[in-house]
């Protein structure tokens, strides 16, 4: 039996299927050293990732040496536990009073998918430092109190709690690399000072659900350029909001942070959203006084204690309806009520010809119910056609062709209805 076969049998303790797998892997037309290297790489892939830890000179060092390693740490009574699973099965425990610093490192070079989670029911209190190096993703479910907190993660998830039993936004920022994303879960974050946001992306972390984040006892200071604040707008009753409470709390935009938007399907023309609230709001987003995203445009109003978005344009449609006397003018409602027409007020149905034209896609058709329209309008060259019609029940409907074709030519010449 060769030395290689003997080694493999010892590693797999007599599991012939796995030995055969490595034999087949190694039985290729390659030089012997390449075949051995390939087999060892396959062997490493088949073994479960391991997390190692040690305590030396009051420094708890946690190491990850392979792709997708995931370390879990918690304060458990008078101990700090380290494991490679969230159930802490087989965890290694260290007396908390003996741990003055914690370092979580990738020791095997650059590996993808490495993570660490600070979880449990109590925060970490250290007399020295808390650092991470080479760990891509972090979960900060517990606050970290240390002389300094630093890291280079590209994504950090922060979850709030009560008192010290919860992560902090500042911890998430301090543990991240420049340009990283900080995903902030809904809830109240109690802080003793303003949170300083330095060239990171703050994401209201609710997916498609609305997130309400409150920073209590301090504000947010976007102190350096390059930062971003991303939110979701689902509807006027479901959207992300950020609030700072407490005397002297300020949200300072400083012209350093860019607003990013994601829209749901229930955003309509003229909807308003109060996205920031604080005793004092200063500065502006880098976007200035308007932002466009996904076919929507919003005006941004900066007030002394709020920032408010107003939807000034929605994605254009190839068919748009105008009536000065719709049955239902609630945003998102079927404008003609129980009528046959399916037109959504604030999206494809409006009460102004000028607005209808602005929401009409190039080459589209505008149907206008006869009525009184006070504002002038201009139909550009991109308009396919404008049809003025009249129906005795005040409903616009293109099937009433005999009622609008007679006026079609005149409307195309004058582009005004009164």
Distance between the termini: 99 Å
Total number of domains: 3
Count of strand segments: 33
* Beta strand %: 35-45%
Number of DSSP helices? 6
Mean pLDDT: 81
Largest sheet: 11 strands, mixed
Secondary structure category: mainly beta
Q: Which residues sit in consecutive blocks of at least 5 with pLDDT less than 50?
A: 1-30, 34-46, 400-418
Helix content: 10-25%
Radius of gyration: 31 Å
From the spread of the alpha carbons, the general shape counts as elongated
Folded structure, characterized:
This protein has 418 residues and is mainly beta. It has helices spanning 3-12, 16-26, 32-46, 169-174, 353-358, 401-414, and strands spanning 51-56, 59-64, 70-76, 79-83, 92-95, 101-106, 115-120, 124-125, 129-133, 137-140, 144-145, 148-150, 153-158, 176-184, 187-190, 195-197, 201-204, 212-216, 220-222, 227-235, 238-239, 241-245, 250-252, 257-263, 272-277, 280-282, 290-293, 296-302, 306-313, 317-322, 349-350, 360-369, 385-389. The chain folds into 3 domains: 3-46, no CATH class; 51-313, no CATH class; 317-414, no CATH class. The strands form 6 sheets. Strands 3, 4, 5, 7, 10, 13, 14, 17, 20, 21 and 24 form an 11-stranded mixed sheet that branches. Helix 1 packs antiparallel against helix 2. The longest helix is centred in the N-terminal third of the chain and has 15 residues, at 32-46. The protein is elongated and about 85 Å long. The N and C termini lie far apart (99 Å).
